[in-house]
Design a protein that fits this description.
Blueprint: H1 2-7, H2 12-21, E1 33-42, E2 53-55, E3 64-74, E4 84-90, H3 97-114, E5 125-129, H4 135-141, E6 147-152, E7 158-160, E8 181-183, E9 195-201, E10 205-215, E11 237-244, E12 256-260, H5 267-279, H6 282-292, H7 304-323, H8 325-331
Parallel strand pairs: 1-5, 5-6
Antiparallel strand pairs: 1-3, 2-3, 3-4, 6-12, 7-8, 9-10, 10-11, 11-12
């Protein structure tokens, strides 16, 4: 097996096209919801392994050497944590995660379009990101694609309101480019919401979503905008504050702050966004399934190219039982349970096939 991984060959582009053309899970209105996140293949003992970067293990705060992978998966609905893996890209050392992620999404959207996944769909693809990504920057870099960006934001962020109208100033002076501050930690700066919804749920009690429209970050020529030519853009979006009555883990519920790349959100858009973000945690269950059940990070490989080949194999192995779920559910039944040769209840049923949902 190690010889095959070290010297073998996999047509990665063909695999990606095949994955994009398969039946994919969709949200309630038939649109695609994709989650993007990074999962590390930790290699602390691979001192001779090249191109290692740093990542964190489970419940770890220290940085551990390894190969981080940016993984994209399509999210589904219902009481299941299965996702459809679509792409995995290894992040090189000292890489710009935002640039690589945007290129990865751009190529994936092109493959989905070529496969006919966008035909007859009047709604853009919703991309869900965690707080490790700069959602406004991703939205700006992908503004020419049929995608919506929904990302979680830190609780210490400060945004700005829409640019105030120009007023003649007899004393001269430069017109204001940014409006008043919107401080996440200061309710006195929020003013009235433009949309509020209340939804009763089984796991979280009542979910309250508040939305403030046309907010943007104040950009400077630093970090991702260091090499930006010309004046910096104003990237408007909608901020969504999500609060719940209780958590399934009985922990203290804290508010979530999300940023949607579109404006003028309706109540239906508000509910669609927060439901899609809660589904983002399905990709965490997928990472656990890949590592604990499919042995994604078990081989002691030296070369990163061999790790890429093994990652492709694991994605293909994960796809097969996902596609077999309808067959397994159709064959499962009280009369078949325990019979020799009877069908396994399948990944949709509680058991070892599927990580338990919170």
């Amino acid at each position: 097996m190690y010889d095959a991984l070290n010297a073998g060959r996999i047509d990665v582009e063909s695999l990606r096209r095949q994955l994009a053309g398969l039946p994919l899970p969709r949200a309630g209105e038939g649109h695609l919801v994709l989650a993007v996140d990074v999962s590390p293949w930790l290699r602390p003992d691979g001192n001779c392994s090249p191109q290692r970067s740093f990542g964190r293990g489970k419940d770890e705060h220290r940085m551990i050497p390894g190969w981080p992978y940016s993984i994209v998966a399509a999210l589904g609905t219902g009481r299941t944590s299965w996702t459809a893996l679509l792409d995995a890209v290894r992040l090189p050392s000292a890489a710009d995660v935002t640039t690589i992620t945007c290129a990865q999404i751009r190529q994936l959207v092109g493959r989905l379009t070529d496969a006919g996944q966008m035909e007859g769909r009047d709604r853009d693809i919703l991309i869900v990101l965690d707080a490790g990504y700069e959602a406004p920057c991703v939205a700006w870099l992908l503004r020419d694609l049929p995608v919506e960006i929904l990302g979680r934001m830190r609780s210490d962020r400060v945004l700005r309101r829409a640019t105030p109208p120009r007023i003649y100033n007899p004393d001269g002076g430069r017109p204001a480019k940014n409006g008043g501050e919107f401080v996440f930690g200061d309710p006195g700066t929020w003013n009235a919401e433009h949309a509020v919804t209340h939804t009763d749920t089984r796991l979280y009690g009542q979910v309250r979503a508040q939305a403030w429209d046309r907010l943007h970050p104040r950009l400077t020529h630093r970090a991702a905008w260091t090499d930006h030519d010309g004046s910096l853009p104003i990237i408007e979006g909608t901020v969504i504050r999500l609060t719940v009555d209780h958590l399934p883990s009985r922990g203290e519920p804290k508010p979530l702050r999300l940023r949607w790349s579109k404006i003028d959100a309706t109540d239906a858009d508000l509910n669609r966004c927060w439901r899609a973000f809660l589904r983002r945690f399905d990709i965490e269950h997928t990472f656990r399934l890949l590592k604990q059940t499919l042995d994604w990070t078990a081989p002691r490989l030296r070369e990163p190219a061999a790790a890429d080949r093994w990652t492709c194999r694991v994605i293909a192995a994960h796809t097969q039982p996902r596609l077999a779920r309808p067959l397994a559910q159709a064959c499962a039944g009280p009369g078949n349970a325990g019979r020799p040769g009877a069908a396994h209840p399948g990944p949709g049923a509680p058991g070892v096939w599927e990580p338990a949902r919170a």
